[in-house]
Amino acid sequence: MQRARKNSAPKEDPAPMEITGAEMVVRAIVEQGTDTVFGYPGGAVLPIYDALFKQNSLRHILMRHEQAATHAAEGYARSTGKVAAVIVTSGPGATNAVTGLTDALMDSIPMVCITGQVPSHLIGSDAFQEADTTGITRSCTKYNYLVRDVNDLGRIMHEAFYIARIGRPGPVLVDVPKNILNQSGVYSGKQVSERKSYNPQTVGSERQVEKAIELMANAKRPVFYVGGGIVNAGEEACKHLTDFVRMTGFPITNTLMGLGSFPASDPQFIGMLGMHGSLEANMAMHDCDVMICIGARFDDRVTGKLDGFSPKSKKIHVDIDPSSISKNVHAHVAIIGDAGIVVGQMANAWKKRNPQLDKTAYKNWWKQIDGWRAKNSFSYQSVKNVIKPQYALEQLYEAVRKRDFYVTTDVGQHQMWAAQFLKFERPLRWMTSGGLGTMGYGFPSAIGVQIAHPGKTVICVTGEASFLMNIQELSTVAQYNLPVKILLLNNGYMGMVRQWQEMFHGERYSESFMDGLPDFVKLAEAYGIKGLRATKVSEAEKVIKEMLAHKGPVLVDMVVDKSENVYPMIPAGAAHNEIVLGPDSRNDGKLDKNQV
Amino acid sequence: MSDIVYDIPEVKETAVRHTLAVLVDNEFGVLARVIGLFSGRGYNIESLTVAEVEHDQKLSRITIVTSGSEMVIEQIKRLLERMVPVHKVNDLTTEGVHIEREVTLVKIRNNTPNTEEALRIADVFRARAVDTSQDSFVFEVTDTSDKIDAFIDLMRPLGMTEMARSGVVAIAAGKKK
Questions:
Q1: Is A178 a catalytic residue?
Q2: Helix locations, A505-564, DSSP H
């Protein structure tokens, strides 16, 4: 029986070999091009950990909670475009991974999660650390498997990676009983595993593309609405998108998940849209006559009240998932396909059509948009005695803008301010939990990103409530000496919850005050990690620069204003033109009737 | 991949009954996944049958009768089609004429004043008696769901003690010129 020798990479052996199930798992991951796996050991997966010990091609990162392992995998996958891998044990290991799997499903992140399982003959007998993993994860994965025969394991592993990667990416779970990991079987290497039943369409219908281009050519008030789908399509795809958008000269807005797909500094970019998006983005979406949606799904945070959403426009919807088309909002022209490929098709059709745009309408549309821009909807009041969270993020952006930086966030007010004030010129640099909104995502995700990009600047922007959810990962950072920079905006509250309680629940701050907080600097130092604190406005810039200059991991406890609210806001159930501007934007809180 | 995406139907609010034939891989957990889709999103299953139809290629056919507005039916079809183990979804209700059948087994008390009436009605419905004993008869009827509903309604007051139904199987009719 062949064993992988230490210090050797398993070659792609075309001849079938007889190896144990555990060795098959390790081999398959490496053959698929994934060099790192995030995990946590346990009884049911000891055979895999034994196989890991005996080889050097697959690196294992020991997290401190299975949920953190899945979020780290998400950070790895989103920042590289590769399929990430996770190994957790049976029972509680698998159930702890459910949150991360659901998060990956909502945000379309490619991931393969291998869970241990009790031996086959014990399944269903309420054995120690047994859980119905496949039953529990059926609705939170793209597909899942329970391996029954070790000779199927190789095929299943490669198929799992295939399914995770193609079409709309997502998490795939492979549940392997312990006896199968120990058994020997025939492994045939990386086959071209196509699944006959699963063949998503990637090239758009030329007829539909022409219809779309025709609509765009005659548009008087067009707007691009671009989401995470183009980021999933890759950096090349985002480059094609950038060229196409520049060719048309149309304004473009991004969803939270789409930030970075188009350079934020480009004047055609009108900011993020949605519940906390810019005034110009939301008003442009409301008043446009042609909306070109690429890789976005008309989520309720974006549309607000559906029957008031962009009532006068015709919508073009480019998506790889047919079930997203006309699910919430009727699409007049639907194009099924990979966002990158379809954008290429559209660009070619546009060049061929060579439309003469209505110059007057075009000028008036941009004049309207510039009018909304002038209201400066993200503005805030700078004060002398307390650091405003927006100010902290502006300082951060100024300090990192000249380098290639990566940002992960948790969920809440800090997430929205990070999206508003940090500008991304390139995709795959912004990692956040959009669809599921998982607090506790940011820190482990930053670990995954740093592992994938060892020399780069990785910053986790977080709040003290979110950070406490996966705080045990400070141990992981210390173990691998990962130079992750944690910028903790400490306002002593669950900020977003407090804001909603202020606005909609008569200021009844029920359970949103964070009592019993630790001294974060002392806590970091307890793990051997540098801790810094800033409480005064004059300290903010200096501390951020010190954080970035330090060669190892750093936690910055930045104490910020407790009562700041995120503006603008489209209250839940309201339409885009019912947007509420902050007291500090140049509008005294009311919109000009003529502009609505 | 069908053209259903490009011909978006108009929004109609009234609930319509559709019969779907879904061709799936005969793999562990596939039926649970399909049912999970319906239960997870609150869609309605009126009846469901499943059996293997191709042994070599390991294919099964699930026949589902569901109801909902036209938009809901569209969503159901697309969500089924994007599932990994699903090969094809045919909406038999919209794809022309189709044949539907259901099987029912009905147990009726023997040697009562109603027994003769029951036997006469069974004759009308071309029911076969598949079991007889001192106390009971068992009738088998294979017909459309409507006819079976009628048969059961008639048998209920005539001494029916137990009843089992199979759910609908359906197949598209051949193309007639």
A1: yes
A2: 520-526, 537-549
CATH number at residue A300: 3.40.50.1220
Tens of pLDDT, residues A336-389:
999 999 999 999 999 999 998 889 999 999 999 999 999 999 999 999 999 999
Q: Do the domain assignments include residue B3? A: no
Residue B20 sits in the same domain as residue B87: yes
Domain count, chain A: 3
Alpha helices in A296-338 (DSSP H): 300-303
ipTM field: 0.84
- Is B36 within 8 Å of A196 when comparing Cβ atoms? no
Q: What does the block give as tokens for B24? A: 């799936």
**Prior bond to A454 cis, omega within 30?**
no
- Of A400, A428, A337, A398, the closest CA to residue A81 belongs to A428
Which residues from chain B sit within 8 angstroms of residue A338, using beta carbons? none
CATH number at residue B159: 3.30.70.1150
* Statement to judge: residues B102 and B133 lie in one domain: yes
* B8·A334 Cβ contact <8 A: yes
Comparing C-alpha atoms, which of A120, A111, A122, A183 is closest to residue A153?
Answer: A183
Q: Are residues A135 and A217 in the same domain?
A: no
- Residue A11 pLDDT greater than 60, yes or no: no
Q: State the pLDDT at residue A194.
A: 72
Look at residue A51 and tell me whether its pLDDT is greater than 50: yes
Residues of the domain holding A25: 17-187
Distances B2 to A200, A324, B78, B93, B171 between C-alpha atoms, Å: 12, 16, 10, 16, 19
Q: Does A353 touch chain B (CB under 8 A)?
A: no
Q: Which residues of A touch B4 (CB under 8 A)?
A: 322
- Copy the structure tokens of residue A473: 């990962």
Q: Evaluate whether residue B6 is within a structural domain.
A: no
- H/E stretch holding A359 reads helix A359-373
Which helix (DSSP H) or strand (DSSP E) does residue A487 occupy? strand A485-490
- The range of the structural domain enclosing residue B51 comes to 16-91
Q: CB distance from A330 to chain B under 8 Å?
A: yes
At B108 the three-state DSSP class reads: strand
Asked if A200 has any chain B CB less than 8 Å from its own CB, the reply is yes
Chain A closest CA to B21's CA: distance in Å? 15
Q: Is the pLDDT of residue A460 over 80?
A: yes
The three state secondary structure string of A100-154 is: HHHHHHHHCCCEEEEEEECCHHHCCCCCCCCCCHHHHHHHHCCEEEECCCHHHHH
Can you read off the two tokens belonging to residue A469? Answer: 């959810």
Interchain proximity B84–A205, CB inside 8 Å? no
User: Which residue of B1, B8, B28 is in closest CB contact with A201?
Assistant: B1
Active-site annotation holder among A285, A496, A547, A569: A496
Cβ burial, residue A515 (10 Å; 0-12/13-18/19+): exposed
Query: Please, what is the average pLDDT of chain A?
Result: 93
Cα–Cα nearest to A332, from A299, A310, A356, A354: A310
Within a domain: A77: yes
Residue of B nearest to A146 (CA): B28
B58: domain CATH number is 3.30.70.260
Give the predicted TM-score (pTM) of the model.
0.92
Alpha carbon of residue A184 to chain centroid: 38
Does A410 lie in the same domain as A322?
A: no
Q: Are residues A173 and A30 in the same domain?
A: yes
Q: Are residues A394 and A296 in the same domain?
A: no
Bridge pairing between strands B169-172 and B98-109: antiparallel
Give the rounded percent of residues in chain B with a pLDDT score beyond 70: 92
